[in-house]
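User: Here's a protein and a ligand (Phenylacetyl coenzyme A). What would the complex look like?
Assistant: Let me lay out the input and then the predicted complex.
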Amino acid sequence: MEDSTKREAFQERIDKGETIEPKDFMPDRYRQQLIRMMSQHAHSEIVGMLPEGNWITRAPSLRRKLILLSKVQDEAGHGLYLYSATETLGASRQEVIDDLLNGRAKYSSIFNYPTLSWADVAVIGWLVDGAAIINQTMLARSSYGPYARAMVRICKEESFHKKQGYEMVAKMAEGTPEQQEMIQDAVNRWWWPTLMMFGPHDDDSPNSAELIKWGVKSKTNDELRQSFVDRHVQEAHTVGLEIPDPDLEYNEETGHWNFGEIDWDEFWKVVKGNGPMNRERLNARRKAHEEGEWVREAAEEYARKRKLRQEKVS
Ligand code: FAQ
């Protein structure tokens, strides 16, 4: 049993805005919640390389190819920082990766949709990275030090991702009629899945209250979704794009955009493994893991030999 005095002192530290570090006392449930959320976040970054990676060999110019290569590599880096940050909670990297490969762990629903045209690369940068920044700017103030610090660097890189995406969106929106059609089609297909990234409505979100009490989240899923809509509707209109929502309407009283209802049946279908690309995504990760076995073995052997050498010297 955890000492209730320690739990109260922990909550006081959170309420004062102090940062919790790996060796500090933390309730088991706080640790478990962070392992769940941070490992899912890491998996999302790694699986998230696949939809855009699909277009690297077909980028329309050298400039676009360099930008895309660099962006996809950044996502790999984010996954690695987040796996390392999760390890500070005592979770082994092998265990969390096995959970992904066995289908036990979740990753963001958004990456289970296909990238059908080059315009999808532009829209992922604009909308998906745009959504990620809104969520992660909040997480950069999270109560757990290693998570918050990882987020600061990740957000800087995500800002570049969003800017390159929006620049490409704007170029296509003022391009030929075919380019305009391609970019509008991509927005039509990605808008609703992006709204789903923020998770279920607050009343249906079993984890939010606890995460807010512990200062991991400071805003609810619906609050973040509303910030995303407010910002991105303006950006769409600036470049002459339509948002595929007949219920979208500016509310003078609240100063926010009202928007239509998300298809929650589709959301849960995708989260439970039955989205358009779930099977392909997991198979791609399993194949990469198997093919990378020799690298892991070589790294372990190198570490073993280095340790032996260090022991001899001392
Ligand atoms: N997809 O009680 P809540 C990126 C699950 S990174 C799948 O509301 P919570 C960068 C949830 O896990 C994108 N599952 O949960 C990039 C829970 O199930 P569990 C990823 C979802 O934790 C850009 C259940 O539903 N970002 O895009 C989703 O309070 C471009 C009930 O939900 C993060 O992971 C979903 N969309 O809030 C990369 C940020 N939503 O675990 C490449 C960190 C909910 O109890 C290219 N995570 N679920 O079995 C978070 O902020 C939160 O965990 C939420 C969910 C907001 C995802």
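Summary: The radius of gyration is 21 Å.
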